[in-house]
Amino acid sequence: MRGDDVFVDRDAELTMLNEMLQQQRRGELLLLYGRRRVGKTALLREWASRSGVPWSYWMALKEPAELQRRRLAATLRGRPPSAAGPSFSSWADLWDDVATLVRDDRRILVLDELPWAIEADPSLLSSLQYAWDIHFQQSNLILVLCGSHIRTMESILGRQTPLFGRLTAQHQLQPLPFGVLREFFPTWAPDAQVATYAILGGVPQYLTWFEADASLSENIRRNILGPTSVALSEIELLLADEVRDIRTYLTVLNALGEGAHALKAISDATITAPTNLTKYLHVLQELRLVERRVPATVPPNLQHRSKQGRYHLLDPFHRFYFRFLRPNQAEIAYQPDRVLEQIQSGLRAFVGQTAWEELARSWVHRQGLGGALGWVPEVIGSHWDRSVQADVVAVSWRERVVLVGECKWGGAAVTRQELRTLLEHTLPHTLKALPQGGAGWRAIPALFARMGTTPDAAVLLREQDGLLIDLRTLYADLAP
């Protein structure tokens, strides 16, 4: 599997799809969705081509429903989508034709970008419900419904929708994990891969923007700041597919990217009343562009109503864009080298505040699931209040265990004095935020330090039964 065809490390998803292919029941109806550029089409085409059974792939376009049906009919007959095919006055007529074509053969049919077809003719879903009940449920057809409009795709799961209760499987495709970057950039040092993850995240299409035979700085200069770059228009293109009032949503996203996370801070930055702002934030959460976080120390039953909620950009590239690119849009075309200098000077702090902290939480998650911690965290996040900010907090409410971690992405080893901040301030103040002030809890300090610690700091951490995770350890432990 190669990075140039945007299909890398989807073994778990392929296994899931192959298990569905081997099910003994008759028809299969799968809903697979996820944000744009995440690799849904590449996954489905790769799986279908490996399946050993006949398959057809159709993508809805922004066009009248009659043309959509004509293209699908042509595709099912093995003709190019642009070829003239039979016309159907309704989706019900087309599904009857599909049933005749597929008969009782084992076959895969992928309907991609389904929301465009639903927008052109909302009756598609009700007619598909009828066709599933009458034709496809008892056939050998594997029907895959795919799309990038998350709100539309998730609405299909609702109780009031025609296909409710008929899906045999559903899956939301996520970006690739950090460990996969070594397959895209096999000769790059771990710290360069972490920085790249902070810039591009795990979206396959974004990762193809960078070239493995160039340095990180060269890639930023050429493929993000260069005159042919598509990166600068990416955010607006994503929003244009989902919302009408792009400017307001961009304003909200920009406020988050500049560091406003509390509702009042976002309200002040956007000059938008909190009552109106919550509507925009809700939509951005539905689109998986923003997430609301609460301190990991808040009990699960109180989290959804906690007043400590903060809003953050979910996608690493979006954070990079609003931190470095959008503020310098006027300069990029005329003085890209000056913008590159600004990125280089601010990149270390940016990586430390974003990717390194997230990778530390990923490390805790994987170690917990693998049994290496000796206990399983039920919540992994961070903690903040007026007295303390803890980068990594993992809590087992059942076992009354809490891990409190600090992240350091500096270029020097952490000293004994620096470590004392974690042991004497961050950890005890975080512990106090737990019910009953943390009484009866076992607290574990953890230090995620890129360059490790000095020898005397390492001794102190061992004396406190703490964990030390440097870049080499984290990189090895997060391998695919």
What does this entry show, briefly?
The chain is of the alpha/beta class and about 475 residues long. It has helices at about 10-20, 40-50, 65-75, 90-100, 115-120, 125-135, 150-155, 180-185, 190-200, 205, 215-225, 235-240, 245-255, 265-270, 275-285, 315-325, 330, 335-355, 355-370, 415-430, 455-465, 470-475, and strands at about 30-35, 55-60, 105-110, 140-145, 170, 290-295, 310-315, 380-385, 390-395, 400-410, 440-450, 465-470.
Report on the structure:
Mean pLDDT is 93; it is low at 1-5. The protein has helices at 11-21, 40-51, 65-76, 91-102, 114-120, 123-136, 150-155, 181-184, 190-200, 204-207, 216-224, 234-240, 246-257, 263-270, 274-286, 316-325, 329-332, 336-353, 355-370, 416-432, 455-463, 471-477; strands spanning 28-33, 55-59, 107-112, 141-147, 169-172, 290-293, 310-313, 379-384, 389-396, 401-408, 442-449, 467-470. Strands 2-3-4-1-5 form a five-stranded parallel beta sheet, with helices on both faces. A five-stranded mixed beta sheet has the order 8-9-10-11-12, with helices on both faces. Helix 9 packs across helix 18 and helix 13 packs across helix 14 (263-270). It is built from 22 helices and twelve strands. Helix content is 46%, strand content 15%. With 480 residues, it is α/β, with parallel strands linked by helices.
